[in-house]
Amino acid sequence: MTALITLARGFGPVVEGEAIVSEEGFSPRYDLDRWSGVITKPGHRLEGLSIKDRICFFPTAKGGIAAGWAFFDIQAKGIAPRAFCFGVTNPVMVQGAVLAGIPITEGWSPDPRTVLRTGDWVRVDPGRLVVELLRRAG
């Protein structure tokens, strides 16, 4: 089973992994425990899930200047995701991901929330600007 999501922009190598698909935006400073890689913001729909080695789909990136270095921090600690796929991001987040060597994309069609679910196995190809569904969860 292969479904394609077309991306608007992307950076980084091709990666595969388990998807985390969020209805909410993401801040590496305020939504994440940067020692464990677990989303700890009270009330966040993904509270308790780890982003480590996952491919993270968030509709928006939240945060400013400190959010960018947080990506480098989580990469150095070995708790970074395999990729960030944002609907909308900002230059600071992109700069942080590039510095950390974490693949990052922005813009999608269709919205991943309509074709993917948390636990699906996906391939992100920033060079070709596509996301492929390789295997459904469960």
From TrEMBL:
Phosphomevalonate dehydratase small subunit-like domain mapped to chain residues: 26-104
Protein name (Swiss-Prot/TrEMBL): Phosphomevalonate dehydratase small subunit-like domain-containing protein
Pfam family, one: AcnX_swivel_put
Source organism per UniProt: Paracraurococcus ruber
Keywords: Lyase
Top-rank taxon, per record: Bacteria
SUPFAM superfamilies: LeuD/IlvD-like
